[in-house]
# Entry
Amino acid sequence: MHEFSFTQSIVNAVIESIASYDVKFVQEIEIEMGEYSTFIPDQIEFCYEILTKNNDQLKDANIVFTEKKGVVECVSCEYRGTLQTIDGDIQSFSCPDCGEYLTIIEGNDCIIKQLKLMK
Ligand SMILES: [Zn+2]
# Structure
């Protein structure tokens, strides 16, 4: 379950970024999920609960997920676009123009977009 280490890094980043402020607690954490990332929001929330249960500043935060659209690029021609998906499953990693491989250049990662803090 790679969500666990990912969530750990989120928690660490939040702790670090509120350390220098006088924060009562974190209200909301907005996480931007790349369209092609493989993280499962439910599992992140589950891990978050476990990891923060003894941290009064973090444990009640609401996690909000927003999606970032992905972009792929062909390794061979000028093609740039999105992957063809059906119900969220990627159908093909081949370029529709020339048949070469497509590489993901955006939408492969997850970042903390915003924190709402209660002072
Ligand atoms: Zn191509």
Observations:
- The pocket of zinc ion is lined by residues 74, 76-77, 79, 95, 97-98, 100 (CB under 6 Å).
